[in-house]
Amino acid sequence: MDRVPIFDGHNDTLLDLHLPERGGGRTFFERSDAGHLDLPRAREGSFGGGFFACWAPPHPESGWTEESALTLTEDGYEVEDAPPLDPIYARETADELAKILFRMEDESEGQMKIVRTAEELESCLRDGVLAALLHLEGAENLGPDPGALEDLYATGLRSLGLVWSRPNAYGEGVPFRFPASPDTGPGLTDAGKELVRECNRLGVLLDLSHLNERGFWDVAEMAEAPLVATHSNAYTLCPTTRNLTDRQLDAIRDSDGMVGVNFAVGFLREDGKDEEDTPIETVVRHVDYLAERLGIERVGFGSDFDGAKVPREIGDASGLPKLLAALRGRGYDEAALKKLAHENWVRVLHATWGG
Ligand SMILES: [Zn+2]
């Protein structure tokens, strides 16, 4: 059995650990059957680490839920736009989640580390220490003052998504729709462009997943680092607003960036259905397509563990070896698997963070 560690572009585990109604009160250190990721299952699946997202859910008083906002259409679905968040609420929530990650590091007795440099990431992968990358999903999580980015950077933040799938002061995220183009509205605001410059200056990775297409092109024009979508798939295979068109993929390739393949079944399947009975080959098809379009050096994983329904065959983090086996069966050799598993992430983070 292969033991190449997988570094992964996205999980929402912190929110599961924060909200008992969502995560069932589980902890990161005990094996659970709920959700997708905890330390024992990470070990079983050779999950070597990943981006741990701080994501603020819709404010409970807004009444917006993905279920209640969903309308089925003849050939797919539309989700009514999520309302913008109050930045104070967003920041408080993100702080709570970041606190959980720091506490996990403390309590892990050296089994887990929040990484701030590509060298730290590489030594964690080599030594079997779970590498956690602190990521904000949505810049409203910075709070009312975007200048907070610098303080958060000092505490360990290394990646920022300008938006989740809703508007904020910086830009607009794509509403969830299928089939529908990611070109859903205006590009970045002036504040958004200023934040891109700040990320360039500090060396914070700018995550393009969830950003609408005009926002994507605004970042592409200004970014001084490789373009990265941490958890998105190929629009040609699954035409949802959350996936990347061929033109976007070409821009990512030209910047020597990368895409983390999302295991969310709704972003994998040709019919866009949120159906767990989705064969592992569907993930392989997106890897094939992206590797063909971007080059094998520019594809990785961005599971969306604890944030989405994933194929039953993968199940949770302990099922990752099944995906590697499927890719091996498809003809990917060990060198290619290592690139997909973590080497591409290490390269891109190195280029983005410097050092
Ligand atoms: Zn996401």
Compact summary:
The chain is 39% helix and 14% strand. With 355 residues, it is of the alpha/beta class.
Features:
alpha/beta; 355 residues; three-stranded antiparallel beta sheet; globular; binds zinc ion; 13 helices; 14% strand
Protein described:
With 355 residues, the chain is α/β, with parallel strands linked by helices. It has 13 helices and twelve strands. The strands form three sheets. Strands 1, 2, 5, 6, 7 and 9 form a six-stranded parallel β-sheet that branches. Strands 3-4-8 form a three-stranded antiparallel β-sheet, with no helix packed on it. A three-stranded parallel β-sheet has the order 10-11-12. The structure holds zinc ion. Zinc ion binds at residues 137, 209-210, 231, 307.
N-to-C series of helices and strands: EHHHEEEHEHEHEEHEHEHEHHEHH
Instruction: Provide the low-confidence segments as ranges.
Output: none
Instruction: List the bound ligands.
Output: zinc ion
- The helicity comes to 25-40%
Mind sketching the topology for me?
Layout: E1 6-11, H1 13-18, H2 20-23, H3 39-45, E2 47-54, E3 70-72, E4 77-79, H4 87-107, E5 112-114, H5 118-127, E6 130-137, H6 148-155, E7 157-161, E8 177-178, H7 190-202, E9 205-207, H8 213-222, E10 228-229, H9 246-254, E11 258-261, H10 265-268, H11 280-294, E12 299-301, H12 320-329, H13 334-353
The structure holds zinc ion.
